[in-house]
Amino acid sequence: MLIKSLIKYRKEELKYALLGFVFGIIAYVSVNSFLVMVFTWFTIVMITLTVFYFFNSTKIFLKNVDGLSKTFSFLILLPFYIINIFYFKVQRLKSNQSREFQKVNNELYIGRLINYNRLPSVVESVIDLTVEFIPKPSTQDYYSIPILDDSYPSDENIRRFIDVIDKCHKPIFIHCAEGHGRTLLMAAIYLKKRGFNKSTDEAIADICKLRNRCKLSFRQERFLYRINGDI
């Protein structure tokens, strides 16, 4: 029961805690001092990420509005970036390239992280929801609204998102890493806020018809319905 609850409510925290445990064991049994230092570093980073994920805070990444992290933050968190890049590459091998992005309406495209030069030429703005990747070069207007995987935006970032979608050039491409959870969450907010859908349920249904692997986590769903009356 406890494990099921952790997977449902705290999947990312559990993932990084387990990685920290594994790296800690490797560091403990290693006889090479260099490996001890490397895996101790990995362990500390994973434990730190567990804490920040628990409190739903992206501050550790120190991302600027242009999506770039401060150099020292990037270097300290290098184990995190290495793991995510490896995982992302594996996922790409299993993915269907035709599912990179979809057109929702004349204002909105949604999808996963891709090279922005593969987007339709009509797309004028990109909203990047990832914290775990460095932004791709872009000829479009670029906005970073960092959200932890499987989670939801801070109050500050939800206000900034609403401000951006009101003012930026359109069409917009909204994406996270895989184009499933965070993308569904923010695209549903977009459709409701811009008046394309009358209800949150309707917005979710329309998006899921286009990207059938889209699914909100428990926390994302709870957040979306909590702010439903404010959008």
Automatic annotation (TrEMBL):
Any Pfam family the entry gives: PTP-SAK
Source organism superkingdom: Bacteria
Occurrences of domain Tyrosine specific protein phosphatases (ranges): 159-222
InterPro entries in the cross-refs: Prot-tyrosine_phosphatase-like (IPR029021), PTP-SAK (IPR057023), Tyr_Pase_dom (IPR000387)
Entry keyword Acyltransferase: no
GO molecular function: phosphatase activity
UniProt key word Transmembrane: yes
Transmembrane region(s): 37-55, 67-88
PROSITE patterns in the record: TYR_PHOSPHATASE_2
Keyword terms, alphabetized: Hydrolase, Membrane, Transmembrane, Transmembrane helix
SUPFAM superfamilies: (Phosphotyrosine protein) phosphatases II (SSF52799)
Gene3D superfamilies reported for this sequence: Protein tyrosine phosphatase superfamily (3.90.190.10)
PANTHER family: OS01G0859400 PROTEIN, PTHR47216
Protein name: Dual specificity protein phosphatase family protein
Organism: Pectobacterium parvum
Biological classification of the source: Bacteria, Pseudomonadati, Pseudomonadota, Gammaproteobacteria, Enterobacterales
